[in-house]
């Protein structure tokens, strides 16, 4: 499996990506014109979309953040974080953060490319999704301050989705908004992670 999937993604990610067409389908605030935001001073960050085999089926890893008094409390995300001065490039940022958060061995990851950068106006982050493969089931070691739970997501659970669900989110101003989301057996993914997942879904489905 992984070799054919890896080959497909390596080739596909060198071509033109769905980009904004896929992203806008999952963006919480569809009325926002993201093109009006200046990204000159955006904070750079990266996440790792890691593929691996579990029980002979391709999976990707998601993490659930701990519950805390903050904007991303309890949310589901990819492992990742902001660029540090010592990082040699954006790929290394994604690998380093995955190592720090869930114990991924950096040298074991075969990076095949990346998806479209995702800008998050509310936090002024420009996120680069890096796609990589590992040829074994990782022994996940959780950094408990950053990660409450590992979610092993079957790739087929993503590709079999025909359209996104919606969920109600209570924002900090007590405004309740219906936002696009993925519902994976009760695990609700929305926001920037859903946006990146949606482009990945389009790519995996040949769009």
Output the keywords:
207 residues; alpha+beta; Nucleoside Triphosphate Pyrophosphohydrolase; eight-stranded mixed β-sheet; three-stranded antiparallel β-sheet; 5 helices; 23% helix; globular
CATH superfamily: Nucleoside Triphosphate Pyrophosphohydrolase
In helices, the fraction of residues equals 10-25%
CATH topology: Nucleoside Triphosphate Pyrophosphohydrolase
Provide the number of structural domains: 1
Figure out the total of helices: 5
Distance between the termini: 20 Å
> Cα-atom Rg, whole angstroms?
16 Å
Low-confidence stretches: none
Q: Structural class, from helix and strand content?
A: alpha+beta
Shape: globular
Largest sheet: 8 strands, mixed
**Strand percent estimate:** 25-35%
Question: Multimeric state of these chains?
Answer: single chain
Mean pLDDT: 90
What is the N-to-C order of secondary-structure elements (H for helix, E for strand)?
Answer: HHEEEEHEEEEHEEEH
The CATH architecture would be: Alpha-Beta Complex
Describe the secondary-structure layout.
Blueprint: H1 2-12, H2 20-24, E1 43-54, E2 57-64, E3 76-77, E4 80-82, H3 90-102, E5 110-114, E6 118-120, E7 125-133, E8 149-154, H4 155-159, E9 165-170, E10 176-184, E11 187-190, H5 192-204
Parallel strand pairs: 1-7
Antiparallel strand pairs: 1-2, 1-4, 2-3, 2-8, 5-7, 6-7, 9-10, 10-11
